[in-house]
Amino acid sequence: MQERVALATKFAARLHGENVPLYVDELSNAVGDYFAAWPERLYIIDGDGKIGYKGELGPDGYKPEEVKQWLVENVQTGKL
Fold first, then answer.
1. Which residues, 6+ apart, have CB-to-CB distance to 38 below 8 Å?
2. In this structure, are residues 66 and 53 in contact, taking their beta carbons and an 8 Å threshold?
3. Is the separation of the CB atoms in 51 and 43 below 8 Å?
4. Which residues, 6 or more positions from 14, have their beta carbon under 8 angstroms from its beta carbon?
5. How many domains does one find in the chain?
6. Residues 48, 74: contact at Cβ < 8 Å?
7. Count of other CB atoms within 10 angstroms of residue 26
8. Under a CB-based contact definition with an 8 Å cutoff, are residues 64 and 42 in contact?
């Protein structure tokens, strides 16, 4: 679990999101299984607990620049 948290923290730092809240799935991968987040898929859960951003399946659909853009737009408007 520590490794997952470290990777998520590193990912947030790459997006210049020092204060970006992240959810790190438990080792059971219950959330990943529920959202079919395999092989790679990025989700952002908004302030209302709903899916604000759902990326496409990776590796081609893995687009952190889209995540960054969504975060920039929604943090500035207060939707997150």
1. 32, 57
2. yes
3. yes
4. 64
5. 1
6. no
7. 11
8. yes
User: Which one has a higher pLDDT value, 15 or 53?
Assistant: 53
The DSSP symbol for 72 reads: H
Token pair recorded at residue 1: 């679990």
63: number of Cβ within 10 Å = 13
Which residues partner with 45 through β-bridges? 51
Strand partners, 43: 54
pLDDT tens, 7-49? 888 877 777 666 777 788 899 988 878 877 566 778 888 888 8
Which domain range does residue 24 map to? 2-77
Q: How far apart are CA 75 and CA 31, in angstroms?
A: 24
Strand partners, 51: 45
Output the CA angle 31-34-40, nearest 5 degrees. Answer: 75
